[in-house]
Specification:
The protein is α+β, with helices and mostly antiparallel strands. Among the domains are: 62 residues, Ubiquitin-like (UB roll), CATH 3.10.20; 71 residues, Alpha-Beta Plaits, CATH 3.30.70. It is 43% helix and 25% strand. It has six helices and eight strands, in the order ααββαββαβββαβα. The strands form two sheets. A four-stranded mixed beta sheet has the order 2-1-4-3, with no helix packed on it. The chain is rod-shaped and about 70 Å long.
Length: 207
């Protein structure tokens, strides 16, 4: 082989060797980067419930995705209203047309008097506090006992609200069966039903 041929062969050999070294370096670097990423995930701060939080960069990315979520026609809208009496009313409905396409920030501007507590493409929860009694409490009543007296309460026996009126009928003067009914709560359907039951309890107490 002449000199030119040997030079060509040497150049080819060096090129192949260089390519091999470069490939090996890139492979090792990629493996090293993957290992570093794995270590960063494992070293993330523990969350409030004991789970690991992602690094700040990944966390920011997730928050960005969440803020970009939009309401669709299949999104469930949940309204929660907490009244001063302590009772909560919950209403659920499909997203109305005027909400479809809104992001969390856009919705917050439209419903400024509500607090958005959850926002996902599948479910949006909004809450609000209101003074007074809930409509369910204001429209119903039952008879129970308070401080030893027969008392009329707003609300039903399962959701007792504030007292409406206190009678002069002592619970201790009633038979055991009536006392048990008062502890459980006696529902009434209206003023006439209320007066009828109170008259019956008064007759038991006087007898």
């Amino acid at each position: 082989m002449n000199r030119k041929g040997r030079l060509v062969a040497l150049c080819v050999a060096l090129t192949l060797a260089s390519a091999g070294v470069t490939y090996a370096y890139l492979s090792l670097k990629a493996a090293h980067d993957i290992e570093r990423a794995r270590e960063r995930l494992q070293q993330a701060r523990p969350g409030p419930n004991g789970t690991s939080l992602p690094p700040e960069g990944l966390k920011a990315g997730l928050e960005g995705l969440a803020s970009a979520a939009r309401i669709s026609s299949s999104t469930e809208i949940v309204y929660k209203v907490m009244y001063e009496c302590g009772h909560e009313e919950v209403n659920r409905m499909a997203a109305p047309p005027e909400m479809v396409g809104l992001t969390r920030e856009e919705l917050a501007r439209e419903v400024a008097d509500w607090t958005i507590t959850e926002f996902t493409p599948g479910r949006v929860v909004m809450s609000q506090r209101r003074a007074g009694m809930s409509p369910a409490c204001a429209s119903s009543m039952h008879i129970g006992e308070k401080d030893g007296w027969v008392t009329v309460f707003y609300g039903d026996p399962g959701h007792r609200c504030r007292p409406k009126s206190v009678t002069r009928i002592r619970v201790t003067k009633l038979p055991p069966g009536e006392r048990a009914d008062l502890r459980a709560g006696i529902p009434v359907s209206g003023e006439e039903d209320l007066l009828r039951i109170l008259e019956a309890l008064a007759s038991w107490a006087d007898g």
